[in-house]
Amino acid sequence: MTTKSTFYTGNWIDSIPDNFQWSNAALVAKGMAPWGAVALGEIDEVIQRLHARAKEPQAWWEEWSAIGARAERTADAAAAEHRDATAGNYYLRACNYYYTGERMLPPGEQKFDMYRKSLRCAHEGLKRRYKNVELVEVPYEGKSLPAYFMKAPNEDGWRKPTIVLFDGLDNCKEMSVIFAGIELAFRGFNTLAIDGPGQGEALRLRNIHARYDYEVAGTAAYDYVASRPDVDPKRVGIMAYSIGGYYAPRAAAFEKRYAALVSWGVIFDYHAVWTKRLEALKAAPPESQAASHFQLPWVLGVPDMDAAMKKVKDFTLAGVAEKIECPTLICHGEGDRLSTTQTANQLYDAVGAKDKTLKIFTKEDGGVEHCQVDNRQVGTDYICDWLSARLL
Fold it and tell me: Which of 378, 376, 371 is closest to 248 using CA atoms?
């Protein structure tokens, strides 16, 4: 069974029409194009080769790794000649290509090796293209969570409003510091783009798994940014996307010092989401779902899907959303194929804040897919404008 968009037709959304898993991941990569972190021509090269290898599971990571390696070689050559601006561009593209390929590899040394290549390219690219980014460590339960702190322009020397930004199930801080951090900095916000428990580098290289009580990570992130002399601790918001659409509301419900909340692509009851997905898989192949079969158990740190389904029962906002008091924005796509608009309405109705906004992106708006990956810019702009009206 193929999951197809009911709002658009053609290969922009469903690059591999018979494989939603590949198409969704390719669309996430395309969503980085407005910020120059991928090149659509290079992505199209990969897609065309994948069409010819559609029955080969290994083709996914082989082709994305190949285009990543090509970009990395060009970046290294430019860096050796001190053409740092050009090198930075190629490094950032290589980072995203490696990461896109890595997401389909099961946990193991091959996956982690490709991730290390992605991370190395991210660091090399960010330091050349974005001088306002610091690599930082957020203290967390005797360990630390890796993050980027993107500074707002600060000619006036004032403490700036700041957004703590967690990832989704499959994404990472290397992406969010670009597609959200750049736009927030332009408007006068600092951004802490952080890999929380079960995400990105924290999961892959530090073995820190996801938890239902994400307020623990949310409080750690708040404490870190509030300790900085360039942050106004009274104007700190929290935002997250996809499964982060559960994490951020959970954190804001219990960490009252957050001054604003954005749930971007809502998840209200994660057990219900996975129950529906597993039921659909009884009549459809694995590639009909966005997440790989290994993803949820790995993220949760359990051996199999049965154990994961037991653990994920605690991942619900029932009885929690009512505790949210800060201004709240809920963003959702009308054609979201990972979580329904009914879920967004459910969260909106439950949130206890007096100042709350529900934005459903329609076909006319653009950005109808999950977290606006089909037109990420419209989602980012709307969110940044909403935050500006409340925290600047």
Answer: 371
